[in-house]
Amino acid sequence: MKKKLILESGEVFHGQGFGANTDTEGEVVFNTGMTGYQELISDPSYCGQIVTMTYPLIGNYGINRDDFESIEPAIKGLIVRELCDFPSNFRSQLSLDEFFAKKKLSGISGIDTRKLTRIIRNHGVLKGKIVDENADETAVIAELKSKNFPTNQVEQVSTKTPYASPGRGFKVVLVDFGSKLGIIRELSQRDCDIIVVSQDTTADEILLMNPDGVMLSNGPGDPQDVKGASELINGLLGKVPIFGICLGHQLIGLACGAKTYKLKFGHRGGNHPVLDLKTGKVAITSQNHGYAIDEESLENTDLEVTHIALNDKTNEGVRHKKYPCFSVQYHPEASPGPEDANYLFDEFVEMMEEFKNKN
Question: Can you give the pTM of this predicted structure?
Answer without folding.
Answer: 0.96
